[in-house]
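dumping these here so i dont lose them again. two proteins, back to back, each one seq then structure tokens. dont judge the mess
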Amino acid sequence: MSIGGMGGHMGGPGGFGRTLRQDSSVKDHRLAPGTTRRIVEYARPYRFQVAVFLVLIVVAALLVVATPLLLQRIIDDGVSHGDRRLVVVLASLVALVAVAEAVLTLVQRWFSARIGEGLIYDLRTDVFAHVQAQSIAFFTRSQTGSLVTRLNSDVIGAQRAFTSTLSGVVSNVISVAVVLGTMMVLSWQITLVALLVVPLLLLPARRVGRRLAGLNRRGMELNAELGNRMTERFNVAGALLVKLFGTPEREQSEFAEKAAGVRDIGIKTAMSSRVFFAVLGAMASLATALVYGVGGWLAIDGAVTIGTLVAFAGLLGRLYGPVTALSNVQVDVMSALVSFERVFEVLDLKPLISVAPGAVDLPDGPLSVELEDVRFVYPGAGEVSLASLEGLPAAGDENGVDGGSGRRATAGDGGLRDGRARRTTAGAEEVLKGISLRVQPGTMLALVGPSGAGKTTLSTLVARLYDPTSGTVRVGGLDVRTVREASLHEAVGVVTQDAHLFHDTVRANLLYGRPDATEAELYTALRAAHIEPLVERLPEGLDTVVGDRGHRLSGGEKQRVAIARLLLRSPRVVVLDEATAHLDSESEAAVQLALDSAMVGRTSIVIAHRLSTVRKARAIVVLDAGRVVERGTHAELLSAGGLYADLYETQFARQDA
């Protein structure tokens, strides 16, 4: 028996090399009730392929004893009796068995890929669709990397349950049973000698398996830290910060330190694996020596034949690999099941925003917007997210304080400014306290007030990024909870302070708002947004890539492209959340012209910080601490001498001058 042959069986269906790297802690994990039943439901569409796959595994496992038995017959019946014809026939059968094993391996691989990739597709599309249905609160709390891991690593781990784990367990169990049975029939004495070596194989397998699991877990952590550092430094915003405040020597030193950790753990892992396989090879050689020693003694006495001795050597290589792999089968199975459970954890998270049965479309024509006694409390972490996706300490949950910074989430944050703010609904402070207002179709309402007054929160309710805790938000006279989501988003357009553009062309970013738009319509929107001359000057025009988050464009240019996208969609209600707040005066003037075009003939709600915008509004609502404290026109509110007059003196007077 060769060491290499034995290693081949270990790295085969049993996936022993992978088994050593599984985290042994999962074997004590308790699965959520119903997990197994749901796994079976996912496998149901592939039941025919799974059945054929299992049959092929059984056939392949039965063939493992064919070659050793044929070699026995070649020696005992062919060579010993000088029967050349029999030797040729049996040797030809050995070749046919080898071809059959190769064909079975290929067919098994096809079915394995068909089942595995099909499951990956089903799980990924289900998780992606479910995550897309989550409210914006979910995304403010969840780490993007954790979500991507669920769609990649955990989905692939779940897929292994039906490919490598399933095939490994079935194949190894059948192989061990068939090989042991065959060995017992050939010689029970030599079989007992061969089994004496099994504990010597299992002991290092378990010990090294635990060590490698710990090293692998630490290696994953170090690689994740290294990856996070590269991600932070290589995106545009991070690279700019490094250029402005960092030093190359410090960055290189810190990166080298983390890379050295990955290097060192890699060396330890490689050496631990090599030591184990060296010990395993030594045990294999010991087993071979024992078999030939005891078997040779018995052959001299005539208790067994030379062919039987050769067959034993071949069978031994097909026994120890599966036995060692089965010693860790519990870890293998639980690792796959835990991956499924982590995927189901995301699928079981109920979206905060749901559409009522029988939802309808908004009516045609101009739309009014109305809030009636609206109260709102930002949902707690347990309502919208999973602790495993947040990756943050739970400190401060009950007080609405961020566990890391001690920063309290304010009404103005809207849960959007600081996604780390952790707050539970029970006993939390209301952000909006009985807001009632109405915007007539085709008119503009300006919202003003100090920071944290609830302006952004109010605007998110109109677009139904959140639902009010109590009260009603109506668009076109219909409660937004009874309106089809697609109809509402088609009718309500939003421009935020920081417009987001995908790392794609200008054309693709515009078409995201309306995929069927023509070239002429694209340029009409660009013209209305006062961005057409810039686009025409770009190297590739509409086909110029704007870069990560649109960083190849200035802030004002990004905003105008976003406004062009909004105009292309042609919403009937426009919500503007301080869309020029962070721009220089020149960019602000250009964006304001674009916004003026966007609001013509549309119902508009504007969170305003410019006096010219406020003066154009048909009505002004002043918010403070989540309440409407004043409403009226610019002149009326100035003469009233209240909060608006104070804001005018502190914010607007310089603009008036």
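---- next one ----
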Amino acid sequence: MEPSQQAPVTLNVKSATRIGRSYSVALTGMKGQMVTVEADIGNALPGFTLLGLPDQSLQEAKDRIRAAARNSGLDLTRRHLTVNLTPASIHKRGSVFDLAIMMAAWGADYAVRAETGPVFLAALGLDGSLQSAPGILPAVMAAVDAGYTDIVVAKSSEVEAQLVPGATVRAYQHLAEVAHDFGAPIEPAPYSGAAARPVVKEHTAGPSLDLAEIQGQHEARWALEIAAAGGHNLVLQGPPGAGKTMLAQRLTTIMPAMETTIALEHAAIQSLSEGRDMTTALPKRPPFEAPHHAASVSALIGGGSGNVRPGAVSKAHGGVLFLDEAAEFRRQVLDTLRQPLETGKVMLHRARHTVEFPAAFQLVMATNPCPCGYGYGTGKACRCTSLQRRRYAAKLSGPLLDRVDLQVTVESLTSQHLAARSSAESSAQVAARVTRAVERARHRLEPYGLRRNHQVPLQLFTQPSLQVTPTGRRILEEALDAKQISARGYGRIMRVAWTIADLLEVDRPSAEHVDMALYLRLNTSGGQYV
């Protein structure tokens, strides 16, 4: 028979396999990328091949998936299963791909119906239970941003996933329930395993902390109020026992509540942490992070060779990073703070990729005047040599301190301060003033796309609505010409002057307000910190 006369070849579609597809998200830091999971069933010897740069924990998914499928009542094919995670150029890590791989494999075997759109974000237990995995919140955020709003997660991750605006979340406890809802001919039995209970975990400054507990220290309290109202960085220097740590711990009690966008970013950072409690609500109070002075660069900034994790500066996003005994930190560790203080983010460069974490925090440092702590006043009790003092002060480098707006000396208390217990304002009273000042700044800066005084660049202070009085400007120009402050310090003092004016509810900073801002920048150790 001639080739042209051959009978046409027909395919038995039901007997042929198809490519099963599902979707998941690969995280690099907080940035997520959509991943298409493709599954194909071949006629080779039985096996399970996983492609697409999976890490070791993802390679182990093959055994987890087979056991979970068997215990769900819908076993995987006994033929050769090939699963490809695309794009193949990025590394995939963790157990969050388990459910997506399972659904693609079942789809290739016609066990479940093919659906385009759902994003599967859950790990699997050997008994078929769906389990949460780190990074659910940023993964859902990435999926919604990419246009995938139908999200399937474990029941324990449901509330966390629902925090993302625009996400339609379906939550299950067991794999059999997922298979049944996607068309598998099985009836899931009631799951008798223990379901993970989500627990609210909100970072707070501590139990029952209140500014009313701080006696005396009127200047330091005023500086704390300015820092809370304008988002300014702060250094507290003074002898041991003067109350530096107590003041810093109460800063978050007078700060305004976090905005929704910042709170969502902070919750996403917390979601990346292993062994965390489930987040069931967006935090309102700003976080307070206080790493130990022995912390490494990776602990402070973030790092890791493969799976890069956020550090303390990112965990303090939207809140306060407090460095107690700051001069005890290694200088190279402290100097890594300079970039995030300027940009509000951390860029961690690796050989194959770059990871970015948000890090818009307020820096508060507390330090003694010298290693022994008694080099204040007349200094008669100080046991340090001049060389020890210089080395101790050199830990806080000039470029780092130039990024700190308020540098305050905390004096020792007297018996009169301790006796006046009824005169101290509470955190609620101070917070009310701070809230009004924040609203004044927001109304003024809204035309420029800004919200807080610490965000105003130096160039904007030439605008008529953001200028100080001519006398106040002359004070700053004289300090700049006398090398008392840098050009960066010039702009930071202007920001503080506007915050003082907002707290005092005046329309424009006067010479008095500028002079006060200049004093609060230079009064530590007689102005040695600029």
